[in-house]
Amino acid sequence: QVQLQESGPGLVKPSETLSLTCTVSGGSISSYYWSWIRQPPGKGLEWIGYIYYSGSTNYNPSLKSRVTISVDTSKNQFSLKLSSVTAADTAVYYCARGDPDERDYGGNFDYWGQGTLVTVSS
Amino acid sequence: DIQMTQSPSSLSASVGDRVTITCRASQSISSYLNWYQQKPGKAPKLLIYAASSLQSGVPSRFSGSGSGTDFTLTISSLQPEDFATYYCQQSYSTLYSFGQGTKLEIK
Fold first, then answer.
1. pLDDT tens digits, one per residue of A35-93
2. Where does residue B99 rank: exposed (0-12), middle (13-18), buried (19+ CB within 10 A)?
3. Which of A22, A53, A86, B31 is 20–30 Å from A10 (CA)?
4. In the structure, what pLDDT confidence band is assigned to residue A31 with cuts at 50, 70 and 90?
């Protein structure tokens, strides 16, 4: 059974960089897309971006200038960095696996981490 | 960007009821539409992918239909564990986007 687990600081100061890591267990990171998705308290879901196991990335244009997603296949991990954070970036951050469809798009999120709340505050 | 709009935003129903939730895309997305269930404090769970395919392990009382711009999620006979928030999500464009959610509450 594939499991994902987010880790990282729960509190980040304004203007600093949010850094999270997702560790994948029970399966290989290869041949799948790996996304970050966030959910502000009491609100809906926002897709942040994905990385393919080969290292290619795609980001939400609304966050693209501040986001970097990287992968470490040797550790079965992928990571999120979001720079210049503000209070608007306070959210539960989820990592999720994207199962490729027949077009090789990885937008079916079939496994999710439990989520981690990141609060931006001084 | 593709906008996803769900209706209703909230819904009250009773155990045993048949419930339908609607999702509309701002442009045609063929059948690249997924449905998720989210319970409080938990991650979303994939229920339906490709508009009508049931994810492994999901009860058969859940079904999805539609193509193009209009889609529905139907729960044939509500069970107590089905009270949750439901989201649609398009995977037609790689700028993935979600609906705003439909909260299903007990009447």
1. 999 999 999 999 999 999 999 999 999 999 999 999 999 999 999 999 999 999 999 99
2. buried
3. A53
4. confident
The structure tokens listed for B64 are 């999805």
For chain B, say whether A93 makes contact (Cβ under 8 Å). no
Asked if A46's CB is within 8 angstroms of B94's CB, the reply is: no
Place of tokens 């790689």: B94
Query: How does DSSP classify residue A103?
Result: T
Query: In which region does residue A49 sit, left (phi positive, over 0), alpha (psi from -120 to 50) or beta (all else)?
Result: left
DSSP string, A57-93: EEE-TTTGGGEEEEEETTTTEEEEEE-S--GGG-EEE
Nearest to A95 by CA among A38, A29, A45: A38
Q: What confidence category does residue A106 fall into, taking pLDDT thresholds of 50, 70 and 90?
A: confident
Q: Nearest to residue A78, comparing CAs of A12, A16, A33, A17?
A: A33
